[in-house]
Backbone:
């Protein structure tokens, strides 16, 4: 079978992105060029690789097998390139990270010093909700995953590296903002604005209130911390979220962290990857960097009292 690595690369991108147009954008190619490359590959294979239903394309059974082979092939080649660079005393290659949405407030602050130290490393950063990150983890699409609540149903390595305190936030003008040691009984009388069901923060908060015998009723639910902070600043209710979500917050003067009994809830941020996965040289370098320097570097970057991770 006469195929080229370029054809395989184009096919893998189309399959991964689910679109010829998005693949062309990622590869910086014209869409007709992408279509021609995929057609030539299908001709060489002798079977169709995609089928189109309406405006969507789907992998055929042959396409699925070829996609799996491509991912394995490119994974092996990527590891070889990074191992070769390591033999030469260099840290070069691509680091693929997938992080939950709240982690976007601090991960770029950790990546900056890391990339200055290792300028030969490129980063592909995927920011998504917890369900999407878990899907990517299950499919082993990235090198490392950062989340606040690791999955219990997957066979994964889990390593805490940074404290993730959950705090109660209210409008700065709220009557509770000047009170101390607010009881949970008093807190549940306030309208609560929470993340959507399935988010790591939501699950931790629900468990915390249930452990203390209080039902949790959300007045409003949002899929982003930005929307929640705007709602709180608009005096629609109070919320519970990671203190990292307030880092460098431009409207921080409109928000107040309440002094509530049992808060902050002490959690950790975790770096996760499938058990048995052989980390690339680049991924292992970033993993070691997170474990040894992450908390200290973040404290210096944000000027806040961040701490190393606590036990889960």
Residues:
């Amino acid at each position: 079978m006469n195929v080229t690595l370029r054809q395989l690369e184009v096919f893998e991108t189309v399959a991964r992105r689910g679109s010829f147009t998005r693949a062309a954008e990622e590869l910086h190619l014209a869409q007709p060029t992408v279509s021609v490359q995929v057609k030539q590959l299908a001709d060489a294979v002798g079977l169709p690789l995609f089928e189109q239903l309406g405006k969507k394309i789907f992998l055929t059974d042959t396409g699925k097998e070829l996609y799996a082979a491509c991912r394995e092939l490119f994974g092996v080649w990527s590891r070889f390139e990074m191992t070769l660079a390591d033999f030469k005393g260099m840290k070069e290659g691509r680091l693929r990270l997938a992080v939950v949405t709240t982690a976007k407030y601090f991960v770029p602050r950790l990546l900056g010093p890391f990339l200055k130290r290792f300028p030969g490393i490129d980063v592909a950063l995927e920011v998504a909700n917890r369900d999407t990150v878990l899907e990517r983890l299950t499919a082993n699409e990235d090198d490392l995953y950062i989340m606040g609540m690791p999955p219990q149903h997957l066979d994964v390595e889990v390593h805490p590296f940074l404290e993730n305190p959950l705090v109660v936030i209210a409008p700065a003008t709220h009557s509770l903002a000047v009170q101390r040691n607010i009881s949970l009984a008093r807190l549940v009388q306030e309208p609560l604005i929470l993340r959507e069901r399935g988010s790591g923060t939501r699950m931790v908060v629900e468990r915390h209130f249930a452990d203390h015998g209080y039902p949790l009723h959300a007045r409003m639910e949002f899929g982003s911390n930005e929307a929640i902070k705007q709602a709180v600043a608009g005096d629609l209710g109070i919320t519970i979220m990671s203190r990292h979500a307030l880092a460098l917050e431009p409207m921080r003067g409109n928000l107040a962290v309440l002094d509530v009994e049992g808060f902050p809830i002490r959690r950790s941020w975790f770096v996760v990857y499938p058990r048995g996965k052989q980390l690339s040289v680049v991924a292992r370098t970033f993993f070691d960097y997170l474990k040894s320097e992450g908390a200290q570097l973040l404290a210096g970057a944000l000027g806040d009292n961040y701490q190393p991770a606590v036990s889960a």
Observations:
- The chain has three domains: 5-68, 91-163+268-302, 166-257.
- The radius of gyration is 23 Å.
